[in-house]
Every structure is written in C-alpha cells, then in structure tokens.
Amino acid sequence: MKENSIMPADIAVEHSRKIPIGVFSTNAYLSKPHHHIEYELFYLDKGTANFHIEDNCNAIHAGDVIFLQPEIEHYVEKPAEGSGFHYCALVFDSSIFENSGDQCRSVFDVIRIRRFLTLPDEMLEKMQEYIILKHNNQFGCDFFLKSFLFEFIAYILQTKQYELISPLLSNQKHSVSAIDNAILYIREHFKENISFDDIQKTTDYSKSHFARLFKETLGMNVTEYLNKFRIEKSCLDLIYADKNITEIAMENGFNNIQYFSRVFKQFMDCTPKQYQRKAKDVIVPSAIPDSIQT
Fold first, then answer.
1. How far is it, in rounded angstroms, from Cα 33 to Cα 52?
2. For a Cys staple, 24 with which of 89, 102, 268, 292, CB 3.0–4.6 Å?
3. How far from the centroid of its chain's Cα atoms is residue 132's Cα?
4. Taking the alpha carbons of 67, 9, 36, 186 in that order, is the dihedral positive or negative?
C-alpha cells in the first residue's frame, strides 16, 4: 500500500462497522503526507499545530475547523517542544447521504465546501459529545453521527460556506449530461455485471464517440473508471465492514477474486489483505481526554 494513502490518523477512537464514518479524538495525527478516499471534518479544540495541505502550511489554533476533500494530500506537523494539541475529526464517505439520485446526495455532489470553516460552538460541542457516545458504544450512536453530518451540511448551505461545482471535469465542447448519465448508471449498478455496452446505451452516442468523449472528459476510459469506482468502494468495505475479502470483491462487482486482487494492486500498490492490515494497524483505541468528558 502506498505510504501516503493510509488512514488519516494514527490513533483513532473507533470506526463504525455500520456506516462509513470514522471518529477520532486524540493528540496524535499522522505526520507523513497521506490522502484517503473519504471526506474529513477536522476540529482543533486545544493547542496549536501546523496543518500541511498539499503544498501549503497553515498555522492552526484552538477553535479552527478544516474540511478536506478526498484525495487531498495532508498531514499535521508536531508543535514545538513543550506545547501540544488535541483534535476531533469525522472521516466519512458520501454514501451516508444516501444513494446517487437521492435529493440530499445530489446536492452534496455538486457543492465544494470551503476548506476553512466557521461553525457555532454548540455544533462543535455536539460533535465532541457524539464522539464520546461512539467511544462508549452507546445505543444509537451511529444514528447520532449520521444526523450530525446532515445538520453540518445544512448549516454549510444556510451560511453559504460552499461553492457550486460541476461533478465532472466538463469540457464546453462536449455534452456533460451524457457523461453524467453514464456516471450515474455506473454508480447505481457497479455491483452488477455491467458492460461497456450497458453504459454506452445510457447515451445517444455511438460506441466510438462515447468512448472518446468519456476519455477526454474524465481522463480514463470506461473500464478504468468502473474499476476505480469499484476499488474505492472495496477500500471502504475493507476498513469498515466485517466481511472477508472474497465477499467484498463479489459485492463490489468483481466475480473473480484473482482479477479483483490484480486490479486492486494496480490502483493501490498493495494487495487487499495488505491494505486491510495496514488500516487496522493504525486504528488503536484512545482514551477520551478530561477536556471533553461529559
């Protein structure tokens, strides 16, 4: 597995096995550049640190809130000797906002949330409270976490801390709607044994024109995109689901375990087992500090 693609923190409170939300509350953050396929809501509730995001170094202080898109390389530089920091974070996949085509998911897919946010104290306190509930494995804690993220997105929309974007790298010469239809079909049917022809039929283009249009718009061909999407979903299952690798492969559209392993290694530079083991190695339960005890 690529060193810069492991989980976003080296000490975690716990990962949900029901919904794809990871909760973190600790003073240790992965200090090597890394990225992940999920979104991250990071809140520094104590101290100071240097938060590196791609090529930028940002000095952050208690009260700062950062939102990270998937695939953004980042890490936290340890503060100077004698000082310290503590943070809380939620790491989540967009599937918590229901399936593609759902109105809430449709809204989330076409906005880009600002990187540096302003959230009310009561919302940040609720975030900390729900992390404690998850740490204590309280009944309904997953429901609380999911409801919090809906509340968070609603607040972002209400306060306009976002910008509208196209979900695709659109080219004005091309019909983005045709590619939108193809992408939507892939996301809804990726678990099935779908083919290029099945995807192409969602558009009005010939096979050759659709193949060229897809490649020019997304930078990869249809098979590559389908495999990439399936591998990303498999990565989430390897982290969050209590299933064996064969089950995960089959449930994400791979009918052949050898082919799944080969494609997985192509995208992730490691085997599914190595990825799963590395992810679990960095998930170590941590005590909740007195500063956020209820």
1. 8
2. 89
3. 22
4. negative
Q: What b-and-e string marks burial along 29-59, b requiring 16 or more CB atoms within 10 Å of the CB?
A: bbeeebbbbbbbbbbbbbeebebbbeeeeee
Q: Which residues contact 201 (CB under 8 A, 6 or more apart)?
A: none
Min mean pLDDT across 15-19, 86-90, 201-205 is at 15-19
Residues 6+ apart with CB under 8 A from 232: 37
Q: Which two tokens stand for residue 167?
A: 């979900």
Residues in CB range of 119: below 8 A, 6 or more apart: 43, 65, 152, 155
Give the pLDDT of residue 170.
Answer: 40
Q: For the chain, count helices (H), then strands (E).
A: 10, 10
Residues 138, 129: Cα–Cα separation, whole Å: 11
d(CA 111, CA 161): 10
Instruction: Map tokens 């009005």 to a residue.
Output: 204
Query: Residue 51 and residue 59: Cα distance in Å, rounded?
Result: 6
Greater model confidence, 260 or 105 = 260
What global pTM score does this model have? 0.68
Length of the chain in terms of residues written: 294
Across 30-44, 62-76, 169-183, 274-288, the highest mean pLDDT is recorded for: 62-76
pLDDT of 291 reads: 43
